[in-house]
Amino acid sequence: MTKASSTIKPEEAAHFGALAADWWDPKGTSAMLHRLNPVRLSYIRDAIDLHFHCDSSLLRPLAGKAALDVGCGAGLLCEPLARLGARVTGLDAAAENIAVAKAHAGPQGLDIDYRNEAIEDFAGKDFDLVTSLEVIEHVDDPQAFVNGLAGSLADDGLMILSTPNRTALSNLLLVELAERTGQIPRGTHHHEQFITPEELETLLNNAGLEVVDTRGLSYSPSKGFALSDNLALNYLMTVVKA
């Protein structure tokens, strides 16, 4: 049962929980995430190398480090982080997602601590890496959510966030076009809940965090997703404690 302090929206948890069984199918309802994931991972790896002074040739730059992925779904990010050497904890609002995540990681020998828990109720602290990708636009209280993320981050830790920007372009491509054509399941996005980079930076500053890098994610039918200087559709942020 979700605690009263939680920022989890029950309807959002139910929506994504209903998609759980299909999460790992690259041609299923999460196909867009599968196409997006390599670009996000590239950004995260570059941020890891820069922040922790790692050689880019290292196969396990997170060896000996603890990582927390909040809103982990069925583990699309947790598994790569584990392969990079991290001790990974994944939190998600939908119990169905956690069940699928555990079932997928187990046969691959990945020991990931998956929990059906809200960040506000999570007691873990001092994670070297905290990630939350395409999640904050689904929560009930973004400031409380960011405060929870900040409370889990080590003083010298690294945080990576991503979320759609609230623009006419994101409404057209992510809501109107993608959902109407079936590329994203209906009801996934609510444009009024999208957060601009300026708004997110304010939330982060309020929580004692500092943004050190922001990059856009662009999309074209021919090339797919790519990192960009254009923040209009979606963006990634690298964050540290101020």
Explain the layout of strands and helices:
Blueprint: H1 10-17, H2 31-51, E1 66-70, H3 78-83, E2 87-91, H4 95-105, E3 113-115, E4 127-133, H5 142-152, E5 153-164, H6 168-180, H7 197-206, E6 209-220, E7 224-228, E8 234-241
Parallel strand pairs: 1-2, 1-4, 2-3, 4-5
Antiparallel strand pairs: 5-8, 6-7, 6-8
CATH topology: Rossmann fold
Distance between the termini: 34 Å
Structural class: alpha/beta
Indicate the radius of gyration in whole angstroms.
Answer: 17 Å
**What summary fits the major beta sheet?**
8 strands, mixed
CATH class: Alpha Beta
Could you walk me through the main structural features you see in this protein, from its secondary elements to its overall organization?
With 242 residues, the protein is α/β, with parallel strands linked by helices. The protein has a single domain (10-241), classed as Rossmann fold, CATH 3.40.50. Helix content is 33%, strand content 24%. The protein is built from 7 helices and 8 strands. It has helices at residues 10-17, 31-51, 78-83, 95-105, 142-152, 168-180, 197-206, and strands spanning 66-70, 87-91, 113-115, 127-133, 153-164, 209-220, 224-228, 234-241. The chain has an 8-stranded mixed β-sheet. It is globular, with a radius of gyration of 17 Å.
Question: What can be said about this structure in brief?
Answer:
The chain is of the alpha/beta class. The chain is 33% helix and 24% strand.
Task: Provide the descriptors you would attach to this structure in a database record.
8-stranded mixed beta sheet, 8 strands, alpha/beta, 242 residues, single chain, 24% strand, disordered N terminus, Rossmann fold
